[in-house]
């Protein structure tokens, strides 16, 4: 395993409550909670001061592309958040390269029932993907793709999500806008799939050859909607 660099150990951690955890990378760091926990070869996650959504620092993820060159930074254990009920997440991301038609992942959650629940891109828009059956949401039809979002390069974008382990509901907001095509129940996934996730990581994994550099900032996970402010 490639451990996070010493520079990143200076990133910030704040625990808002027993089941809400956040970091803005500004000062202090609890390495028992935050760090790189999924990594391949050739990729890196380091503290960076060239871009920040707030304050002066973010975490910079660099991947040369290709499946083996993946990396994810975040929380390797979210059992305390799961114990509180529904899971809500918020993060800001700044992509050097816009999403293309390639299939990629930039958010990874290990899932006991589907290997992994992933947020990423395909058809040049944001999608959800289940690793076990490789099913995507939206379904890839022109109508569904039109209902998703194409992320602009070089700009800060706010991603929010809601996962209910009990009902199977998944909801997605991007820049405070609710995205119906990235939310259930719907004909694509319905309500029978109930995510059973154990961690939360942000990074980059390409199933083609798409290289990218992404800055992540103001990460938060809890039991109620966190918002983009």
UniProtKB/TrEMBL annotation:
<dbReference type="Pfam" id="PF21340">
    <property type="entry name" value="Polysacc_lyase-like"/>
</dbReference>
<feature type="signal peptide">
    <location>
        <begin position="1"/>
        <end position="18"/>
    </location>
</feature>
<dbReference type="InterPro" id="IPR048955">
    <property type="entry name" value="Cip1-like_core"/>
</dbReference>
<protein>
    <recommendedName>
        <fullName>Cip1-like core domain-containing protein</fullName>
    </recommendedName>
</protein>
<feature type="domain" description="Cip1-like core">
    <location>
        <begin position="24"/>
        <end position="223"/>
    </location>
</feature>
<keyword id="KW-0732">Signal</keyword>
């Amino acid at each position: 395993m490639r451990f996070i660099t010493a520079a990143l150990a200076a990133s910030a951690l704040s625990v808002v409550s027993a089941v809400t955890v956040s970091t803005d990378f500004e000062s202090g760091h609890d390495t028992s909670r935050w760090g790189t926990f999924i990594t391949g070869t050739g990729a890196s996650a380091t503290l960076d001061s060239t871009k920040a959504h707030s304050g002066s620092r973010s975490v910079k993820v660099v991947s040369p592309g290709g499946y083996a060159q993946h990396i994810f930074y975040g929380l390797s254990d979210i059992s305390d958040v799961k114990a509180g009920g529904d899971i809500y997440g918020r993060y800001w991301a700044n992509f050097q390269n816009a999403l293309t038609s390639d299939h990629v992942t930039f958010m990874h959650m290990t899932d006991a029932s589907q290997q992994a629940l992933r947020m990423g891109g395909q058809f040049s828009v944001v999608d959800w993907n289940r690793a076990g059956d490789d099913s995507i949401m939206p379904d890839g039809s022109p109508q569904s793709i039109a209902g998703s979002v194409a992320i602009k390069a070089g700009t800060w974008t706010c991603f929010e999500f809601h996962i209910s382990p009990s009902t199977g509901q998944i909801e997605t907001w991007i820049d405070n806008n609710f995205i119906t095509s990235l939310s259930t129940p719907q004909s694509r996934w319905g309500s029978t799939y109930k995510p059973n996730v154990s961690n939360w990581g942000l990074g980059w994994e390409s199933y083609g050859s798409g290289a990218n550099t992404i800055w992540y900032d103001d990460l938060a996970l809890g039991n109620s909607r966190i918002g983009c402010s």
